[in-house]
UniProtKB/TrEMBL annotation:
Protein name: VWFA domain-containing protein
Sequence ranges assigned to domain VWFA in this UniProt record: 8-186
Pfam families: VWA_2
GO biological process: nucleotide-excision repair; regulation of transcription by RNA polymerase II
Gene3D superfamilies on file: von Willebrand factor, type A domain, Zinc/RING finger domain, C3HC4 (zinc finger)
Any GO CC annotation of this UniProt entry: transcription factor TFIIH holo complex
Length: 357
């Protein structure tokens, strides 16, 4: 028995000049766009909780739209229709931007399993960003890279290597019919079989530590972020911790400029020690062991500095564990009575105060 698992899928599409070749009429890019439209429509019809983002790459990579629900399928189609061929193929940059979009989504609470669908003819130019390094990074984050190769197979087959590294699926497509079949297989590829004992990657403390966002210092804020923080919290309070409601750190007595940090997602201010203490008070043991915390305001996954976590552990160890010895019940000695008749009839024939018999 199986069920559908909603996914966050990044469509990473090659729009370089070589995608204008007409060996797959009318040209490679248009055929790929039609296949992607079919894939998105089919997946949304069977699973309305999945979401799609679109990244295109030629001379540079660009995120066209963030993860989008079925209500905005027209926006996805319009963006796909607007794509034109130009420049060379910076495949590494496209993968890097796709992974960055997924990591940002994984930091949110209740994030869906990620996947990248890379569509290209495999004719790439070497850039600073190595596609194979990006594939190994994706492998460490448990992100599968499925690949559609269109046109002629080159040597070496870089797309197949990317899929092999990340345990994704590789499809070779020489015409529009094979592209349609490949799109159908990916659209129908989000079933989970019951009885699987594999631990979700989100339950791995090392994984959470790896993807968590770094807190921002006061000097790290951009002008827009600082202005936003002032608008939300006010001119006088945007440098006050939202946990202890003070600008002075209650643990170190330092000022907010020294130990103050901001959530990069919602610009909520904290003292790093207050945030660590708040995280330690939560019931999620995986979060505790990972050295991360959820922002109390937006639940974004944040990385607590290692030195703060270590100080907290040392403080707990220095206190020691005092085990209270269990107290023995107080036993009162019974008085010996030679003649029980002196107790009277009421005491002799009354019920036992223990067993009531």
């Amino acid at each position: 028995m199986s069920e559908r698992i909603p996914e966050n899928i990044v469509i990473c599409l090659d729009t370089s000049r070589s995608m204008y070749k007409k060996d797959i009429p009318p040209n490679r890019l248009i055929c790929c766009i039609n296949a992607v439209k079919s894939l998105i429509t089919e997946r949304f019809n069977s699973d309305s909780l999945s979401a799609f983002a679109i990244v295109k790459f030629s001379g540079k990579a660009e995120k066209m739209i963030d993860f989008t629900a079925p209500n905005y399928i027209n926006n996805l189609n319009e963006i796909l229709d607007s794509m034109k061929c130009s420049g060379y193929s910076a495949l590494g940059d496209g993968l890097a931007l796709s992974i960055k979009a997924i990591i940002s989504e994984l930091r949110k609470i209740g994030a869906k399993p990620p996947r990248i669908l890379l569509i290209s003819d495999g004719k790439i130019m070497k850039t600073i960003v190595d596609p194979l390094k990006m594939a190994r990074l994706a492998q460490g984050l448990n992100i599968k890279i499925d690949t559609f190769l269109v046109g002629e197979i080159g040597q070496p087959n870089i797309l197949k290597r990317l899929s092999d590294i990340t345990d994704g699926r590789y499809f070779y497509n020489s015409d529009s019919e094979s592209l349609a079949r490949s799109a159908h297989e990916i659209a129908d590829d989000n079933y989970k079989t019951y009885g699987s004992n594999k631990e979700p990657i989100s339950e791995n403390p090392a994984f959470l530590r790896k993807i968590a966002a770094d807190l921002l210092r006061v000097q790290d804020l951009t002008k827009d972020q600082e202005q936003r923080a002032k608008q939300i919290r006010g001119q006088g309070d945007f440098k006050k911790c939202s946990i202890c409601f003070s600008d002075s750190n209650p643990y170190t007595k330092g000022s907010f400029y020294v130990t103050g940090r901001y959530c990069p997602n919602c610009t909520t201010p904290f003292h790093i020690h207050c945030l660590a203490g708040w995280a330690d008070s939560q019931k999620d043991h995986v979060i505790k062991r990972s050295g991360t915390a959820r922002c109390p305001h937006c639940f974004y996954l944040l990385r607590i500095p290692t030195e703060v976590s270590q100080i907290q552990k040392l403080r707990v160890l220095s206190r020691g564990i005092k085990e209270d010895q269990p107290k023995l019940p107080e036993i009162l000695p019974a008085k010996f009575i030679e003649n029980v008749a002196h107790l009277g009839e009421e005491m002799l024939f009354n019920a036992c105060p223990v067993c009531h018999l």
